[in-house]
Amino acid sequence: MKTVVVKMGGVASDNLNDAFFEKISSWQEQGYQVIIVHGGGHYISTMMKTLGLEVEVKEGLRVTSDETLEITRMVLLGQVQPMITTYFQQAGFHALGLNAGCDQLIQGEVINEEQLGFVGQVTEVNHQLLQTLLTKKHIPVIAPLGITAAGQWLNINADEVAWKIAASLQAEKLYLLTDVPGIKKESEWLKEISVTDIQQLKTEKVVTGGMLPKLDSAQKALMAGVKSVFISNTIDSFGTEIKFATAG
């Protein structure tokens, strides 16, 4: 089964236009099954500010207290996911909103509770559930949340969830969508980089903030067998492709 995993950020979720859905249709016509992982940081931050709560981010990850976790769940599952699935359904696709509580879809563990609170990383993905849905031509739309073995919900970076899902299904393509058209060095948007370039881009501070988890996720996905990873602001352009080695 050929699979494409697309991670959409909160801002990218506003841009579900005709070109986006034409690309999804094109992939399906080529025999690809599609999975969407959605973020929602923009909406979560807006809600927290509305409620007078401080937004704290460390190395691209949102520090997540009990209160922040509840707001995150509320926004992702009550606002962002229904919005995305509605757009897909209006465009004629069989979209299905899923979360960590759906047959243990995403199992996780806390990264560092003292520093980050209830921020987690993925330990296991129920890929059998996803394969069953894909066989029936559904498009899973998945929120970036996990649950520990003890039943604690976790806020997980959406790029991390996306690459773990892509790896579990040995996806052909992984798109990490963001609000910029790729990785920029000086005044140039890079068409491709190799995994060996990543550390240098970090050291030189070419890549900072929220782009750091994206590069880490791209590298891990390739190492785990995903064939190609793209960082872009749209699925109808390649943006920056990350490969094991650049040509030449």
UniProtKB/TrEMBL annotation:
Keywords: Amino-acid biosynthesis, Arginine biosynthesis, ATP-binding, Cytoplasm, Kinase, Nucleotide-binding, Transferase. The record marks 7, 214 as: Transition state stabilizer. The keyword Disulfide bond does not apply. Residues 2-232 form the Aspartate/glutamate/uridylate kinase domain. It catalyses: N-acetyl-L-glutamate + ATP = N-acetyl-L-glutamyl 5-phosphate + ADP. Coiled coil: none annotated. It is found in: Cytoplasm. Belongs to the acetylglutamate kinase family. ArgB subfamily. It comes from Candidatus Enterococcus willemsii. InterPro entries: AceGlu_kinase-like_sf, AcgluKinase_fam, ArgB, Asp/Glu/Uridylate_kinase. The gene is argB. It is an enzyme of class 2 (transferase). Catalyzes the ATP-dependent phosphorylation of N-acetyl-L-glutamate. PANTHER family: N-ACETYLGLUTAMATE SYNTHASE (PTHR23342), N-ACETYLGLUTAMATE SYNTHASE, MITOCHONDRIAL (PTHR23342:SF0). Its EC number is 2.7.2.8. This is Acetylglutamate kinase. Its main location: cytoplasm. Pathway: Amino-acid biosynthesis; L-arginine biosynthesis; N(2)-acetyl-L-ornithine from L-glutamate: step 2/4. Substrate binds at residues 40-41, 62, 155. GO terms for molecular function: kinase activity. The keyword Kinase applies.
